[in-house]
């Protein structure tokens, strides 16, 4: 069994996170609840920031907040000196509500609406990452109308095929994201932007995909972008001041996963850029990165309570918990793998292999197939590890299940940062029909 961050087993044989017994969390907040080990989040953030410092490179580490967007997390990210990557008006609004410094916010998205872009101008964010020609036109219109400058990068697809799930690769030519580097789109975007009065073209961005383990893909992408920047240097005497190399650094969900430490990816990419900068006599650009999963993924643990069990003789044993695909769609969507423990029986011998199933009306609502956990009975607590990224953020109310509570833990203290949805939350958007509508039907 592999424990993460500050996780330990206490004398009572219970899982502890950040010095707090998880049975205490369950007693106070019920289940399902996602807890974040904030010391681990801080360690991950510091790991990225320190890497750049050691390399002596000007940088911004932007938390890709799509992984888990929440006011309290943005507050902590701010204190750690992180920047923020948002992809919608909703994430931007969350950042505004968290008083996140606007100049450290970067706005992404392949179909930002005019009203979203106007909001970004109003808030005065630090940079917009332009995805397509339509967006260039929209931005020009807004910036001219408002007579307001805005820093921009262009997102490019460097033609790197990353080996991860097909749904989460983004760097290949056939992608809905960005301007292609090889077919001339990136050059055309650059030509349109390089002398714009309001849109201040800082440079390029790429993101090759998510949950990637190999260092090479990141290095190749960084090199491809530097080569393009060199062409613009030679042909247009233009120097980019920023190179944003995205996120995507893989984490260890199960013992079979073998990622590098997050800073290894960053160091390798940055050194590749430094080398080419020297070769091209190119002023070293500031390096921006956008890790999401590798900042929050392994800091999160979901606590569930065991309910019913079902044995299908000679086939499998189902252990059902009080959440499932509504609070973690990843196993159903990507066939993602997780590990779990019985958090109130950490010292019990491992039992048979079971399938941990959710409570939704979908056969595919299974959190782990083939989990080797100790024997459980109803009321036991299952802790599913590494659920900090793309779980709560992708949660739904399917079957009208309530979204779970989210709790931060640090140094023996726990703090609720998202309350569990109540029944009235589940109908808050519904409008009852007026009586005359119903009467007409009868
Ligand atoms: C543009 C962009 N930046 C950053 C990220 C964060 O990726 P990850 O959570 O894998 O670090 C994503 C998601 O894949 C993304 O699309
Ligand atoms: N939601 C995906 C990652 C998408 C990354 C965003 N571009 C996952 O859970 O793995």
UniProtKB/TrEMBL annotation:
Gene Ontology terms: biological process: lysine biosynthetic process via diaminopimelate
| CDD domains given in the database record | PLPDE_III_DapDC
Q: Would the keyword Lyase turn up in this protein's UniProt record?
A: yes
* InterPro entries for this protein: Ala_racemase/Decarboxylase_C, DAP_deCOOHase_LysA, De-COase2_N, Orn/DAP/Arg_de-COase, PLP-binding_barrel
Residues annotated with N6-(pyridoxal phosphate)lysine modification: 66
Q: Which pathway?
A: Amino-acid biosynthesis; L-lysine biosynthesis via DAP pathway; L-lysine from DL-2,6-diaminopimelate: step 1/1
Q: Which domain of life is it from?
A: Bacteria
Described purpose of this protein according to its UniProt entry: Specifically catalyzes the decarboxylation of meso-diaminopimelate (meso-DAP) to L-lysine.
Q: How does it assemble?
A: Homodimer.
For this chain, the family text in UniProt reads: Belongs to the Orn/Lys/Arg decarboxylase class-II family. LysA subfamily.
Q: What is this protein called?
A: Diaminopimelate decarboxylase
Source organism of this protein record: Savagea serpentis
């Amino acid at each position: 069994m592999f424990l993460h961050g500050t996780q330990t087993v206490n004398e009572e044989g219970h899982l502890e996170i950040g010095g707090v017994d998880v049975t205490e969390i369950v007693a106070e907040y019920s289940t399902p609840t996602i807890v974040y080990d904030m010391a681990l989040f801080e360690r991950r953030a510091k790991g990225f920031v320190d890497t750049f410092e050691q390399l002596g490179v000007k940088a911004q580490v932007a938390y890709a907040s799509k992984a888990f967007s929440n006011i309290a997390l943005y507050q902590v990210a701010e204190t750690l000196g992180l920047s923020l990557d948002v992809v919608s008006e909703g994430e931007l609004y969350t950042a505004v509500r968290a008083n996140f410094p606007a100049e450290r916010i970067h706005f992404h998205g392949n179909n930002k609406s005019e009203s979203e872009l106007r909001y970004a101008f109003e808030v005065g964010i630090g940079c917009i990452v332009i995805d397509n020609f339509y967006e260039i036109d929209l931005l020009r219109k807004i910036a001219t109308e408002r007579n307001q400058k805005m820093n921009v990068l262009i997102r490019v697809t460097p033609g790197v095929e990353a080996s991860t799930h097909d749904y989460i690769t983004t760097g290949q030519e056939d992608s809905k994201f960005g301007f292609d580097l090889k077919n001339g789109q990136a050059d055309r975007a650059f030509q349109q932007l390089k002398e714009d009065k309001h849109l201040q073209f800082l440079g390029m961005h790429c993101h090759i995909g998510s949950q990637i383990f190999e260092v090479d893909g990141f290095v190749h992408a960084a090199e491809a972008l530097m080569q393009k920047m060199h062409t613009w240097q030679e042909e247009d005497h233009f120097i980019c001041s920023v190179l944003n190399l995205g996120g995507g650094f893989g984490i260890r969900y199960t013992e079979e996963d073998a990622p590098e430490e997050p800073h290894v990816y960053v160091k390798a990419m940055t050194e590749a850029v430094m080398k080419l900068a020297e070769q091209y006599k190119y002023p070293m650009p500031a390096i921006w990165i956008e890790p999401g999963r590798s900042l929050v993924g392994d800091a999160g643990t979901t606590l569930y309570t065991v309910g019913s069990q079902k044995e299908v003789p000679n086939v499998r044993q189902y252990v059902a918990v009080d959440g499932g695909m509504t609070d973690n769609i990843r196993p159903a969507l990507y066939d993602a793998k997780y590990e779990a423990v019985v958090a109130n029986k950490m010292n019990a011998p491992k039992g048979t292999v079971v399938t941990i199933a959710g409570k939704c009306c979908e056969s595919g609502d299974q959190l782990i197939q083939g989990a080797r956990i100790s024997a459980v009975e109803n009321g036991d607590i299952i802790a599913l590890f590494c659920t900090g990224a793309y779980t709560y953020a992708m949660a739904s109310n399917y079957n009208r299940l309530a979204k779970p509570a989210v709790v931060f833990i640090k140094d023996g203290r726990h703090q609720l940062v998202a309350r569990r949805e109540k029944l009235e939350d589940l109908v808050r958007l519904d409008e009852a029909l007026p009586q005359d509508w119903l009467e007409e039907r009868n």
